[in-house]
């Protein structure tokens, strides 16, 4: 018979949820047992089947006020996630601010740990991230920007620009006609 080791209890301050925020009973939050923090701001909503998991680094996950984290979004803490106010993550958005080391051939990738941080993921206020977009370590989304569905972002997106594609590139400016 296989025995499963007990999992350490996270510190009491590892997870803070503002009393006015709403977290679906079907969402999953896995706080850190290593000291990183997860904070969900006032009026924010975390819908069913969304996952926030503290893994892969030493960064905190901080979600601002009045944010919507829609179904099937996955946020890994990695090198840290900062989400501003009034941000909408459409269904299926993945935020992964960590990169596995993979250069050595004599050690399986899963045993090589992680590459150095590129700064985590930072999302400004009033941003919309479309369905199934992926934000990678080093992504910095400026205020008012829009990320198209399915885009993969790993760098800086200036304020109010619209980016899409793999890898993501500028496809328009918010408030102007898009091609």
From TrEMBL:
Keyword Zinc: no
TM region positions: none
UniProt xrefs under CDD domains: LbH_MAT_like
Keyword Nucleus part of the UniProt annotation: no
A GO molecular-function descriptor: acyltransferase activity
Highest taxon of source: Bacteria
InterPro entries, sorted: Hexapep (IPR001451), Hexapep_transf_CS (IPR018357), Trans_hexapeptide_repeat (IPR050179), Trimer_LpxA-like_sf (IPR011004)
Protein name according to UniProt: Acetyltransferase
Species of the source: Hypericibacter adhaerens
């Amino acid at each position: 018979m296989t025995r499963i080791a007990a999992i350490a209890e996270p510190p009491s301050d590892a997870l803070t949820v503002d009393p006015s925020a709403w977290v679906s009973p079907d969402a999953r939050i896995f706080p850190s047992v290593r000291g990183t923090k997860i904070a969900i701001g006032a009026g924010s909503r975390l819908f069913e089947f969304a996952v926030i998991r503290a893994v892969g680094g030493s960064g905190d996950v901080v979600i601002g006020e009045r944010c919507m984290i829609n179904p099937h979004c996955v946020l890994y803490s990695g090198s840290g996630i900062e989400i501003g106010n009034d941000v909408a993550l459409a269904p299926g958005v993945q935020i992964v601010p960590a990169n596995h080391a993979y250069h050595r051939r004599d050690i399986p990738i899963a045993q090589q740990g992680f590459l150095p941080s590129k700064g985590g993921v930072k999302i400004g206020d009033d941003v919309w991230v479309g369905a199934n977009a992926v934000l990678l370590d080093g992504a910095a989304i400026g205020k008012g920007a829009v990320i198209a569905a399915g885009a993969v972002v790993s760098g800086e997106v200036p304020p109010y620009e619209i980016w899409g594609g793999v890898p993501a590139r500028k496809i328009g400016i918010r408030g102007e006609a898009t091609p």
